[in-house]
Amino acid sequence: MSPWLCLAIAYLAGSIPSAYIAGKLNGVDLREHGSGNLGATNVVRVLGTKTGALVFAVDVLKGFLPVYFLPRYADTLMPAMWALAFGVAAIVGHVKPVFLLWRGGGKGVATAAGVFAALAPLASLVTFGVWMLVFLFTKYVSLASLIGAVTLPTAILILSRDPESPVFISSVFIAAFVIWTHRANIGRLRRGEEHRFVKKAAA
Asked: 134-171: per-residue pLDDT in tens?
Protein backbone atom coordinates (compact mmCIF):
# COMPACT_ATOMS: atom_id res chain seq x y z
CA MET A 1 0.00 0.00 0.00
CA SER A 2 1.29 3.47 -0.81
CA PRO A 3 2.60 5.25 2.30
CA TRP A 4 0.80 8.36 1.10
CA LEU A 5 -2.47 6.48 1.16
CA CYS A 6 -1.61 5.29 4.66
CA LEU A 7 -0.91 8.90 5.63
CA ALA A 8 -4.38 9.87 4.43
CA ILE A 9 -5.90 6.97 6.37
CA ALA A 10 -4.08 8.11 9.52
CA TYR A 11 -5.40 11.64 9.09
CA LEU A 12 -8.95 10.40 8.51
CA ALA A 13 -8.71 8.16 11.57
CA GLY A 14 -7.59 11.13 13.65
CA SER A 15 -10.43 13.20 12.21
CA ILE A 16 -13.14 10.93 13.61
CA PRO A 17 -14.92 13.39 15.97
CA SER A 18 -15.61 10.99 18.81
CA ALA A 19 -16.61 13.70 21.29
CA TYR A 20 -18.92 15.34 18.76
CA ILE A 21 -20.54 11.98 17.98
CA ALA A 22 -20.97 11.18 21.68
CA GLY A 23 -22.62 14.54 22.22
CA LYS A 24 -24.98 14.16 19.28
CA LEU A 25 -26.00 10.68 20.48
CA ASN A 26 -27.00 12.37 23.73
CA GLY A 27 -28.76 15.28 22.01
CA VAL A 28 -25.99 17.77 22.81
CA ASP A 29 -23.58 19.79 20.68
CA LEU A 30 -20.54 19.86 22.95
CA ARG A 31 -19.21 22.89 21.12
CA GLU A 32 -21.98 24.84 22.83
CA HIS A 33 -21.62 23.36 26.32
CA GLY A 34 -18.97 23.27 29.00
CA SER A 35 -15.64 24.53 27.69
CA GLY A 36 -16.83 24.13 24.11
CA ASN A 37 -13.88 21.85 23.38
CA LEU A 38 -14.37 18.49 21.66
CA GLY A 39 -12.12 16.59 24.02
CA ALA A 40 -12.66 13.87 26.60
CA THR A 41 -12.42 16.32 29.50
CA ASN A 42 -15.39 18.31 28.29
CA VAL A 43 -17.30 15.10 27.64
CA VAL A 44 -16.82 14.09 31.27
CA ARG A 45 -17.97 17.52 32.45
CA VAL A 46 -21.11 17.52 30.32
CA LEU A 47 -22.04 13.87 29.77
CA GLY A 48 -20.41 12.01 32.64
CA THR A 49 -17.47 9.75 33.40
CA LYS A 50 -18.50 6.66 31.44
CA THR A 51 -19.05 8.53 28.20
CA GLY A 52 -15.90 10.57 28.77
CA ALA A 53 -13.82 7.45 29.37
CA LEU A 54 -15.14 5.91 26.15
CA VAL A 55 -14.32 9.04 24.16
CA PHE A 56 -10.85 9.18 25.73
CA ALA A 57 -10.20 5.55 24.78
CA VAL A 58 -11.29 6.18 21.19
CA ASP A 59 -9.10 9.30 20.96
CA VAL A 60 -6.09 7.34 22.22
CA LEU A 61 -6.75 4.55 19.72
CA LYS A 62 -6.98 7.12 16.90
CA GLY A 63 -3.29 7.77 17.52
CA PHE A 64 -2.14 4.30 18.52
CA LEU A 65 -3.64 2.16 15.77
CA PRO A 66 -2.30 4.07 12.71
CA VAL A 67 1.22 4.17 14.17
CA TYR A 68 1.19 0.53 15.27
CA PHE A 69 -0.41 -1.07 12.22
CA LEU A 70 -0.01 1.10 9.11
CA PRO A 71 3.81 0.80 8.85
CA ARG A 72 3.31 -2.95 8.40
CA TYR A 73 1.27 -2.36 5.28
CA ALA A 74 3.04 0.68 3.83
CA ASP A 75 5.25 -0.06 0.85
CA THR A 76 8.33 1.74 2.14
CA LEU A 77 11.92 1.06 3.17
CA MET A 78 11.58 3.55 6.05
CA PRO A 79 8.71 2.24 8.20
CA ALA A 80 9.96 3.99 11.34
CA MET A 81 9.98 7.40 9.70
CA TRP A 82 6.56 6.85 8.17
CA ALA A 83 5.23 5.69 11.56
CA LEU A 84 6.13 9.13 12.88
CA ALA A 85 4.40 10.75 9.93
CA PHE A 86 1.28 8.67 10.52
CA GLY A 87 1.27 9.78 14.14
CA VAL A 88 1.54 13.43 13.23
CA ALA A 89 -1.25 13.03 10.68
CA ALA A 90 -3.53 11.46 13.29
CA ILE A 91 -2.88 14.28 15.75
CA VAL A 92 -3.49 16.94 13.11
CA GLY A 93 -6.70 15.15 12.16
CA HIS A 94 -7.88 15.27 15.76
CA VAL A 95 -7.15 18.99 16.08
CA LYS A 96 -8.35 19.92 12.57
CA PRO A 97 -10.90 17.22 11.64
CA VAL A 98 -12.01 17.15 8.04
CA PHE A 99 -15.39 15.76 9.11
CA LEU A 100 -16.08 19.01 10.97
CA LEU A 101 -14.71 21.16 8.14
CA TRP A 102 -11.36 21.57 9.91
CA ARG A 103 -12.89 23.35 12.91
CA GLY A 104 -13.78 22.46 16.46
CA GLY A 105 -11.38 19.61 17.10
CA GLY A 106 -9.75 18.66 20.38
CA LYS A 107 -6.34 19.74 21.65
CA GLY A 108 -4.51 16.58 20.66
CA VAL A 109 -3.40 15.30 24.06
CA ALA A 110 -5.18 11.93 24.08
CA THR A 111 -4.34 11.20 20.44
CA ALA A 112 -0.70 12.19 21.01
CA ALA A 113 -0.67 9.85 24.00
CA GLY A 114 -1.79 7.02 21.72
CA VAL A 115 0.87 7.87 19.14
CA PHE A 116 3.69 7.73 21.67
CA ALA A 117 2.24 4.69 23.43
CA ALA A 118 3.08 2.93 20.16
CA LEU A 119 6.42 4.70 19.58
CA ALA A 120 7.82 4.90 23.13
CA PRO A 121 5.68 2.86 25.56
CA LEU A 122 7.92 3.18 28.64
CA ALA A 123 8.35 6.94 28.29
CA SER A 124 4.60 7.21 27.74
CA LEU A 125 3.96 5.29 30.96
CA VAL A 126 6.22 7.67 32.87
CA THR A 127 4.44 10.64 31.30
CA PHE A 128 1.04 9.25 32.21
CA GLY A 129 2.19 8.82 35.82
CA VAL A 130 3.33 12.45 35.96
CA TRP A 131 0.05 13.58 34.34
CA MET A 132 -1.96 11.72 36.96
CA LEU A 133 0.04 13.14 39.88
CA VAL A 134 -0.31 16.72 38.66
CA PHE A 135 -4.01 16.26 38.00
CA LEU A 136 -4.74 14.62 41.35
CA PHE A 137 -2.92 17.35 43.27
CA THR A 138 -4.21 20.36 41.30
CA LYS A 139 -7.41 19.22 39.51
CA TYR A 140 -6.24 21.20 36.48
CA VAL A 141 -6.39 19.01 33.36
CA SER A 142 -4.68 21.72 31.32
CA LEU A 143 -1.75 22.02 33.73
CA ALA A 144 -1.35 18.24 33.83
CA SER A 145 -1.37 18.17 30.03
CA LEU A 146 1.21 20.94 29.78
CA ILE A 147 3.56 19.30 32.26
CA GLY A 148 2.98 15.97 30.56
CA ALA A 149 3.93 17.53 27.23
CA VAL A 150 7.26 18.58 28.70
CA THR A 151 7.76 15.27 30.51
CA LEU A 152 7.41 13.12 27.39
CA PRO A 153 10.49 14.29 25.44
CA THR A 154 12.44 14.47 28.69
CA ALA A 155 11.61 10.83 29.49
CA ILE A 156 12.36 9.72 25.93
CA LEU A 157 15.75 11.44 26.04
CA ILE A 158 16.67 9.99 29.43
CA LEU A 159 15.66 6.47 28.42
CA SER A 160 17.13 6.50 24.92
CA ARG A 161 20.13 8.77 25.58
CA ASP A 162 19.93 9.70 21.93
CA PRO A 163 19.17 13.38 21.24
CA GLU A 164 19.24 12.66 17.51
CA SER A 165 16.53 10.00 17.72
CA PRO A 166 13.62 10.75 15.36
CA VAL A 167 11.22 9.75 18.13
CA PHE A 168 12.79 12.25 20.54
CA ILE A 169 12.87 15.03 17.95
CA SER A 170 9.25 14.40 16.98
CA SER A 171 8.24 14.38 20.65
CA VAL A 172 9.72 17.86 21.07
CA PHE A 173 7.67 19.15 18.15
CA ILE A 174 4.51 17.43 19.40
CA ALA A 175 5.10 18.85 22.89
CA ALA A 176 5.40 22.33 21.37
CA PHE A 177 2.21 21.72 19.40
CA VAL A 178 0.30 20.64 22.51
CA ILE A 179 1.53 23.70 24.38
CA TRP A 180 0.40 25.87 21.45
CA THR A 181 -3.09 24.35 21.50
CA HIS A 182 -3.25 25.17 25.23
CA ARG A 183 -2.19 28.80 24.85
CA ALA A 184 -5.60 30.07 26.05
CA ASN A 185 -5.39 27.78 29.08
CA ILE A 186 -1.92 29.11 29.87
CA GLY A 187 -3.32 32.63 29.92
CA ARG A 188 -6.12 31.61 32.27
CA LEU A 189 -3.71 29.74 34.54
CA ARG A 190 -1.50 32.81 34.80
CA ARG A 191 -4.49 34.99 35.66
CA GLY A 192 -5.90 32.46 38.12
CA GLU A 193 -9.02 32.06 35.98
CA GLU A 194 -8.64 28.44 34.86
CA HIS A 195 -11.43 26.20 36.11
CA ARG A 196 -10.56 23.12 38.11
CA PHE A 197 -11.95 19.85 36.88
CA VAL A 198 -15.47 19.11 38.06
CA LYS A 199 -17.21 16.12 36.52
CA LYS A 200 -20.91 15.73 35.89
CA ALA A 201 -22.56 14.34 38.98
CA ALA A 202 -24.43 11.56 37.17
CA ALA A 203 -22.84 9.51 34.41
From this structure: 999 998 989 999 999 999 999 999 999 999 899 999 99
Mean pLDDT confidence for 43-70: 93
CA dihedral sign, ordered 34, 40, 41, 44? positive
Cα separation, 131 vs 123, whole angstroms = 12
- Rounded Cα gap, residues 10 and 63, in angstroms: 8
pTM of this structure: 0.86
Per-residue burial over 148-167, b if 16 or more Cβ lie within 10 Å, else e, is bbbbbbbbbbeeeeeeeeeb
CB 11 within 8 A of CB 92: yes
CA distances from 69 to 2, 60, 75, 77, 181 (A): 14, 14, 13, 15, 27
Range list of H helices, 16-48: 18-25, 40-47
Q: What angle do CA 45, 47, 40 make, to 5 degrees?
A: 60
Range ranked top by mean pLDDT from 38-47, 73-82, 109-118, 193-202 = 109-118
What's the whole-number mean pLDDT along residues 97-105? 86
Query: Which has the closest alpha carbon to 33: 21, 23, 48, 18?
Result: 23
